[in-house]
Amino acid sequence: MTGTEKIEEASEARKPNETDVLVVGSGIAGCSAALAAARAGASVLVVTKATRPESAATHWAQGGIAVTRDAPESLRSDVMTASANTANPTAIDVLVENAGEAVADVLIDTLGISFDREGDKFDYGKEAAHSEPRILHVDASTGQHILGPFCSYLDSHPRVTMLEDTAALSLLTHEGRVHGATLERDGKTWATIAGTTILATGGIGALYGTTTNPGSATGDGIAMAALAGAETEDMAYVQFHPTAYAGDDLFLVSEAVRGEGAVLRNADGERFMPGYHPEAELAPRDVVARAVQRERDVTGEVTLDTTPLDFSGTFPDLAEKCDERSVPHDSIPVAPSEHFLCGGIAVDDRGRTTLDRLFAVGECARTGVHGANRLASTSLLEGLVWGLRAGESAVGFDADSSALEMPTALNSDPALPPEFARDKFVRLQRVMDECVGLSRNQTDLRRATSALRRLKGEVDAYVRTRTSRELYELRNASIVALLVARDALDAEPVGCHHVEEVDAD
Q1: How far apart are CA 104 and CA 40, in angstroms?
Q2: Among residues 390, 461, 403, 448, which one has the least CA distance to residue 32?
Q3: Is 369 in contact with 384 (CB distance < 8 Å)?
Q4: 14 has catalytic annotation
Q5: Pick the catalytic residue: 52, 258, 285, 374?
């Protein structure tokens, strides 16, 4: 039975729909939460905007997943150092102490992921700011090799229903407790009541003009949680990846390529990174990203020189992407691009938010493990570890709609102007790119806050009278953009939140 058939059958049996655990999002964090909850005996409904798996951020992840190997203290130290010493030590402990068991249990034993090997041993990769090779990977397309099998496994699980191309529009709340969400598919909306709700909606890349995220990354979970009263933290810390292809049809050039020996050169052919950091190309991401942008501004271009390695042999997937765009393998034009939100919905070590029965995992959650800057190849691991822990903790609560007033879909005047959502999104992206990008200053941040506040007001006027997915996505994006800009005004300027002085003139 397909996910659609199962949800339709449930709809007929129970009005409104009910489930023990509602998971919103189908990346590694959402799938891990669903797996853990189902293992504990719960009925689980997974809803996702994605058309699996290509539209989920996990599918786009290239480098791999960091593991401890035999040196947990080394990973602990690298995470803290990359964060500019701002990460939460307790959160790092949770990540490190659960990494080995989670990877072995889910990815290797349950899903049978065929990570690259050298002979009978894993071929561990090395990436920027890692002190040793510890990255499990499948070529440079690790995410898609994990997510496809994960979704297929859950599809066949008797306790899990997966429904794609389905958006969560808002959370159902009463007196500080979350009771599920209003969902939308094909223009139809309905309420799903849940014992617990787990948000795993990914990042905020769609708020920027260029991003390594899928276009669906509009910050939905963060916005819905904030509107319901949940706390957010560290929203200023937006990480930019230093090496995205700087041409049409953007793609990420994995950090693993630099880990294998590739170097960055400016338009004059100079290898410049040794002048910026002792670790050169393997410095923390925020350092490399700002250096790349500075050299692009001064010389006009930065390229990734892959001649020190067998690029096509080591990274055939990336070589194919270059071939499709007629890009020479030995000189790939690169530029920084929005990549990852280190902050998000504030959660504890089990993914619990500040609202009762609401959990958040993955990129939409702020666990504290990344601080002001994320270490490469820890996002999949964080999603896996916190997803499992949240799924386990979310079981055992009854779905109860007795205190709720069921929402109704709205469709009244004023009529939505043609291209309204698209035009507003372009305006939002322009503000974020110009004022809340890789480098910021207080003047631009205040300007962004004012502009985004006005934009949110315009969008809210229509949301109050109309129910549509694209309008709610725009609302969510405007809320999250405002949260980022406001937090950036006051946040400590460290890591990927780089604040520059501007002349008084």
Answers
A1: 19
A2: 390
A3: no
A4: no
A5: 285
